Amino acid sequence: MYPLLAILSLGFLIVVHEGGHYFVARWCGMRIERFSIGFGPGIFKRKSKKTGTVFQIAPIPFGGFVEIRGMNIAEDVDPDDRAAYPNRPAWQRFLTIFAGPATNYLSAIVLAFALYTCHGVESSWRWYGVADVQQNYDAYGKLEVGDRVLEVDHAPIMAEGTWSDGTHTITAGKTLTERVSAKQGAPVTLTVLRDGKKLDVTITPTRIAGPEQELSIVFAAQLRACCNLVTKHGEPRYLMGIVPSETPDVLDIGVIASAKGALEYPVVQTKLIASGLYQIIAGKEQADPGGPVRIYSEFKKAWELGFINGIKLVMMLSVYLGLFNLFPLPALDGGRLVFLGYELVTRRRANPKIEAMVHMGGIMVLGVVMILVTLRDLHVLW
Asked: Per residue in 37-58, pLDDT tens?
């Protein structure tokens, strides 16, 4: 089901965006000729008897489009055709174009509200959990995936943040690895939470002498990445044989707080995206572009990790898609909004030939970029 969920998630982003254009255009009295998911000739088509719109699925998964009568600037339009795009008032055309990104933001809000209401929100603190238990270690058979580590030798431990129940307060200090290594191989008693019950489990760590011994350990690379097996000076470490995770609590915040958090979500996410773009432009971070293939792969991974992770990725990419389309670049919604904004302010339409050349050039550049990004994705995956 994961590949199917990934495809449906990608399709959801496209349908929501183009659906915004479609419904606002119809509300404004425009005639929609075609609603397409993907580009190219339609593979599956269905024509609405009521509106005459052709709904189709096309083979090139670079996005989708809504073809409104007369929207192509090079198209000859009857000046008396009130259903044609250029014959509608400028404010209606502006709303029609703006509706796509706006609907992406709206979908993120709706999904966030549903998630926060039905599931809750993650806490600011993190507990150590058991993500995996390796064989040939004493922890194997004693600890189970999903266990939450509460104490080490009856001293509370947290991975991050501060937790309080009103009486007791725990603040993150030394890490789990540091606590275990400090015992120098002596047995360690872990208090874990399993199925709602506290259990004390005594584990004798295994001494890792150095890089030579690491190479003989199963999953050495994973353990080295997660548990910091050996210091840069080659000092020995003592391992229990678990791959720890940092797990937050899930808090029930109620309907009102969920609504407030849902409204704040796209704002916070937009700030994070803008900050990331600034870091890339300033040369402080390296860009890592991805196309439909990459998005499909990330969706598949997210759904494999669980339903909540899949929904969170849909929420985040909804904001990404909405913000990206608002960039004032040719061929994007933002580029069209620039021309419409000029028309609203000056009360006169921009030169159609210039606008057509700008958008056509943008489409060509965007197409080349998408092809290159997709080829890069295929190279990475294969």
From this structure: 988 888 889 998 888 899 999 8
